[in-house]
Amino acid sequence: MKSGLELYDSRVSHVEVSGNVVSVHFSHAYIHKSAGTPGRDRGTGWSQEARLTLSEVPELGPLPPFPNTISEGFLEVGGIQHQLIPLPFKRKVGARLVLSFVDGTRLELIGNKPLLELYGTPIYLEEFP
Q1: Residue 46 vs residues 19, 26, 55, 106: alpha-carbon distances, Å
Q2: Considering Cα of 29, then 25, then 9, then 28, what sign does the dihedral take?
Q3: What are phi and psi of 23, to 5 degrees?
Q4: CB within 8 A of 50, min separation 6: which ones?
Q5: Which of 22, 66, 81, 114 is an S-S bond match for 74, by CB 3.0 to 4.6 Å?
Q6: What's the CA gap between 6 and 116, in Å, rounded?
């Protein structure tokens, strides 16, 4: 079964900065699972904790307030904008993460080696039509 993390309606709990490595922590990542194409074909929706890490990130400006819910966003890697990030996801190239939140704030990170990891126990939410 294929799966992907949908950024829309996922919640960011906090952003952790350690040197030039930045980790975006999702307290609720909306995960689509499907035998076909996640987010498009029939399947199921799940909630799970996740962490997206970028390396070699230059200095950050002010961060938006957290926790916060994503209203729209994408992860751009190799010229492709992923609004639904395929899982598992690990690349060795440059990436740009752009997130807009429901309160009107925005987060943009540019770095390298994007890695998306799921952790915690997945929670079943719904059938995806």
Answers
A1: 33, 13, 28, 25
A2: positive
A3: -120, 125
A4: 5, 10, 25, 26, 29, 116, 117, 118, 119
A5: 81
A6: 12
13 sits in the region (left: phi over 0; alpha: psi -120 to 50; else beta) called alpha
Residue 60's pLDDT is: 86
In DSSP terms, 101 is beta-bridged to 70
pLDDT at residue 59, as a whole number: 81
Look at residue 39 in the predicted model and tell me its pLDDT.
84
**How far apart are alpha carbons 61 and 19 in whole angstroms?**
14
pLDDT 10s digits, 101-129: 999 999 999 999 999 999 999 999 999 87
- Backbone φ and ψ for 22, nearest 5 degrees, come out as -120, 130
Residue among 10, 118, 115, 4 nearest 54 (CA): 115
